Predict the structure.
Amino acid sequence: KNQVEQSPQSLIILEGKNCTLQCNYTVSPFSNLRWYKQDTGRGPVSLTIMTFSENTKSNGRYTATLDADTKQSSLHITASQLSDSASYICVVNKDSSYKLIFGSGTRLLVRP
Amino acid sequence: KAGVTQTPRYLIKTRGQQVTLSCSPISGHRSVSWYQQTPGQGLQFLFEYFSETQRNKGNFPGRFSGRQFSNSRSEMNVSTLELGDSALYLCASRREGETQYFGPGTRLLVL
């Protein structure tokens, strides 16, 4: 069964600290993996997209890693800011048909 | 460049009614997808339209339907509303081969 599982479900950290969010998937065949940030009441915004051959991709303070062998990805946030408080959703694109399979997200709260 | 716009932003309906949501994609984007997002189920794919034709469909009942116009604008209709249809409905548009961009969503509450 094609699934995308994220952990933890929720996370609270202090401003300035780093954190890492996890995504495990069983989707096959795999085309690409995306991380989205979704602020409360808004639509998701793409942070990174990685294909099978990419191991890491950065977008400012966000760095995503991908291990296609173990089917795991992580999103690392450096020097967190209050504006990082949001839900982070891992999405896997199955094959080339643009069938997106969504994780349930990690809700991050950054406290001052 | 304007982003994806959705109207209305908020909507309250009662059970049994029907509702139509509208989505205007980014200029030049011909693919429009619709998603339902609920706290319990997360984001779930409803359907995708491309050049006025439904190209992909998720696992939702026939009460959920959509269409796309020649200018790529899309509408989604839900008939005979149920309490469980309360959700954030997101529209996303993209060019072929590129990433999709989401709109702000329409929050529907069914009473």
Summary: Chain B touches chain A through 17 residues (CB under 8 Å). The first strand of chain B starts at residue 5 and ends at 7. Chain B has a mean pLDDT of 94.
